[in-house]
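Dear Dr. H.,

I hope your travels went smoothly. While you were away I took the liberty of generating a structure for the chain from your last submission, since the lab meeting agenda had it listed for discussion. I wanted you to have the full record in hand beforehand rather than looking at slides cold. The sequence, exactly as received, is reproduced here:
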Amino acid sequence: MSLLLVGVSHRTAPVSVLERVAISGEDIAKVLDELITGEHVSEAVVLSTCNRIEIYAVVETFHGGLTEVSRVLARHAQADVSDLTDHLYVHYAGSAVEHLFSVAAGLDSMVVGEAQILGQLRAAYSTARELGTVGTALHEVAQHALRVGKRAQTETGIDTAGASVVTEALDDAEQALGGELAGRRAVVVGAGSMGGLAAAALRRRGVGEIVLANRTTERAERLAEIVAAEGTPSRVVALDALAPEMGAADLVVVCTGAVGTVLGLETVRAGLCSAPSAHHAGRPLVVCDLGLPRDVDPEVGELTGVTLVDLATLGARLHQASAGQAVEATRALVVEEVRGYLAAQRSAEVTPTVTALRRRAAEVVDAELLRLDGRLPGLESDVRGEVAKTVRRVVDKLLHTPTVQVKRLAQSPGGDTYAEALRELFELDPQAPAAVTSGPSGSGITAEGVPTSDSARLGGDEVDQALAANPVLDGVAPESPEPAALRVPGGTS
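The corresponding predicted structure, in token form, is as follows:
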């Protein structure tokens, strides 16, 4: 069993593709069910945020798992797999672990170091666990990833700037408005986690009033109470009453989980026309669309006096952002954690073989002691006891060094060959439950031969080739073993 990651993100796809592949909260259960009912996938977690959609799956074989996961993504996006392969990235075994840890640490975010991704990953794991698609393997790697993310925040200070997609969007809004947001009027559409972040960020920047709109009024009212309790005037309006608010607002932040347009062109145009003395007199309006799929009609940005800030414009600006010392320290931390995790996994994979060896030795000792009883039936019990203890001590001492060494050597890449040698030398049955190397209870994600420095990625043409070469597409299971890692020259995600 190995970890497979298939994803698409702001690094590999434009917003138009991301919003096609985006998986809403209502659809996650359906997607997870499709994945688990496949022949090759035994566990799965779906991570869907405003700038990435990733499926982490524990699979029996690489090609079979890649085919099933890619097909599920394509069906959800109502597209052919070939339409997505130019934008997909694939990580496998140790490389998938490294990518997951990097995501948890905030290294792969649009705003590098933003802390929100850790909560999103925790929520994705919790959802999958509640739906019964998380087993021992994904539980272990997900919990380790969450610890890595927390450690990165605590030890490297990568999140001390407090940057997020919301704060970066508000920075762009301040620049477009020609000054600070203090005293200005803001409208927030959406009262979920992103809406709450937006309201909190606006409050910290001293806006004069926050108007909240949401599909469910009760949720918006709860958020309004929180904002008002912090000292910022706040009120709630219905979604169909947004037009008049457009005319009085300086800034509109839209961040819902809806599928389809929430703020249309005609709504904004009607709002602008309702306040000729304001916006038509030269006062600008900034609309921030932080939804995926888009919440705002892109044509809104073509209106006179309106600046549209969306994930595409943010991504273009942040793509070349400098790393900084905190990011470099976090990268080193991730490398360290990946090495430790994979070493522990490889060591755990050897443990059943060591156990089988000791059991075989114990069986030989018991058989010889039984033969001794047959040859010397009159042997006194205390003498027999001492003989048994002596023989067992000799066997334990003979096995101690090789078993300790094989566990130590197994922690290095390719270390499983030592366990294989033990099985050959002592004729341990690899099919016996005690001798298999997949780990106890099927736990552990194999990472045979994967250097921890690998950041292997399969994307674009390589995905096409992997899918095209996969016999599963023709209904024939592959016979060749899956690769331990896949590498694209110079490629990282």
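Two observations you may find useful: The radius of gyration is 29 Å. Residues 325-375 form the longest helix (51 residues).

With kind regards,
E. W.
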